[in-house]
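Q: How would the structure tokens look for this protein?
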Amino acid sequence: MEFIELNAKQRETTGKGAARQLRAKKAIPAIVYGGKKEPTMLALDTVEFDNIIRKHGSMGLFFNLRISGAAEKTVMLKDMHMDTFGLNYLHVDLQEIDMDKKITVSVQVEVVGKSKGVKEGGLLQIIRRELDVVCKPMDTPDTIQIDISDLDIGDAVHVNDIDLGEHIHIPHDVNFTVLTIVPPSTDAGERTEEGEEPEEKAPAAPASKKASEE
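A: Here is the predicted structure in token form.
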């Protein structure tokens, strides 16, 4: 895992009007939650934060948060709210973490290898593009790699088939399907190149992008 440097300024004002004024100044209203501590109200630089998201995506991000006039915090991206069109950041939620305690974080599923079934004309259908894992922050994997090389048409990978080691747990009540190779005659999606996933009509977003204002 990687800790990204992120700068922030403390803010005192709250409410929709104050949030709009911040965004007009190219800043994003943000808040840090920290267990029993009172939440800390922050302002993030829009350009800096946008560059981070463009480079690293928005899933499973950890930061060394440098707050002007305050002690540095170790945090993770908990939620990210954007406008209806997904163009502007409205609010960012951060969670202070304890490096010795387990957390729940979403991790992207990454397919590796070339499926025998896809070579024969089958379609790779990914049901879960990310999975929640429970582990200590330093044990968080960058991605969950699933080798599909031996999968034939009709084969599937279920959550119980995924072994991330003794320190990482995938919470689940049922043994749900993560991905499968389906016959080409199904309507599972468009045919993909070997090792690539089909496009879904409505993929789940790693962080909330609901229109929201403070």
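The first strand starts at residue 3 and ends at 10.

The chain is about 10% helix and 40% strand.

Upvote if useful.
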